[in-house]
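Lab notes, practical 5.
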Amino acid sequence: MSIYYDLYTSGNPLKREEKQSLHARVIPSGTIEGKRLVKLVAQRNAFSEATIEGCLQAVADELRDWLAQGYTVEVPELGHFSLSLRCDRPVMEKKEIRSPSIHLNRVNLRVNKRLKESLERLELERMESPYRSGSTLSDEECRDILLKHLDEQGCITRADFKRLTGVSQDRAFNLLHQFIEEGIIRKYGGGKTTVYLKGR
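Output from the prediction step:
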């Protein structure tokens, strides 16, 4: 299965008159939510979902506690986690700022070398991103994208359908409703947990 990407200009605002170089960006295929990830791991291994959730919670608790003490923490098979800080305002001299003006910036992850190397053998395929500026895809093209995703992933949320096709919130709702009426897909669940499956 290929990963799709598109090319974008760097967009340096200080050098608008100069031709900008292109950089590649992955076009998201969707989001694997936590509960689904746990289920997938359980299906592939001999662990129960409760065991996996418990282990993940225990690792997250230890990670948080050691990061809060200023440590860099290695999580096996993933990489090293560390914290970065930011100042409230630009300063030139150390005496100009005090500890209350320093805050957490982000939690950094330096990915494990083996994990990174295992991802370097990806199959990449270029396509025009549907997220650029309002999708011009036809209903049929949106349906094809939907069915391809369902064949590969099994289900889809409205947010993921919107992301994949680049359509507006209203059009995503209308298209999914239309595809349900046509029997192409069926709705499962309700509210924020609603997903769409292939029709029977």
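Observations recorded by the TA: The chain has two domains: 33-119, 135-198. The chain has a mean pLDDT of 85.
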